[in-house]
Amino acid sequence: MPVEDTPSEAIEPAPIATIVLPCYNEEAHVLLEIQRITKVMDDDGMPYELLAVDDCSTDDTLKVLRSVEDEYPHLRVVAFRRNGGSGTVRRIGTQMARGEIVVWTDADMSYENERIPELIRVLLEDDSYDQVVGARTTEEGSHKALRVPAKFVIRKVAEVLARQRIPDLNSGLRAFRKSVSLPYLRLLPAGFSCVTTITLSFLCNQHDIKYVPTAYAKRAGKSKFHFTKDAYRYILQVLRMIMYFEPLRVLMPLALFLFGLGFVKGVVDMFRHAFYFPANTVLLLVSGLLIGAVALLADLVVRSRDDSAGPPA
Description:
Layout: E1 17-23, H1 30-44, E2 48-54, H2 61-68, E3 75-79, H3 86-96, E4 101-104, H4 116-125, E5 131-136, H5 144-162, E6 174-177, H6 178-181, H7 194-204, E7 209-214, H8 227-245, H9 247-272, H10 279-304
């Protein structure tokens, strides 16, 4: 007697991309952002997941996310028990991602999230790029009069140290290959400079980045950016990242400058006072030698480090 075939349940395809959406006190507009992202991704037809991570919000952000979780089949909600910062959210979200392409963006309505499929398809269609960044053409953040010149100077310093042009060093809208990012996730700081870190990590390791000009709107809600504290961390993180990957580029010019200055001063001192070297001349020479030795030692540590493995599971 023939056995009647029973229809098998439809298996949802694995996502190609995972969109990591940090949410902290965004109750007034997080639903609008979810609707905007899911609409453009659904219209595109690409398999995806939207990972909304509530960073221990003090308002009803988590309540809003939970209330719509069942309405959006591609939405996954993760709740932190304590506030970890946007960098922590993005790091853990990237580790949890099921898609090979990971997208970072914000929930404050400031970025052109309608262009997320475009960023993803650049990576799918061109294997030569490992990251695509939405480079902002305007600055609409808080403390604009201070942020614009400060960010320009820091970006130029990063360009000199990385020896590459960087149109936007800290854009929050970007897509990258998860497999390439895994060795660098442990470097991400907890705060806003995590996007700077992932940019410099890729550039310093010869991973090509494509910059796509995008518009940038004034954010909805209250900004979490504190100019003095976050700008200081921002500068520190740029120097830390260059030191992590290219310490000679930071330390050796200073070492050579001090030693060269001490050598020239020593020659002058010898002509002025035969075989007498003042303490400041000796200090310059010794300082140059010590910094040069530290630079070489740091470079040796960098060259012997294994960055091939990702963070521990």
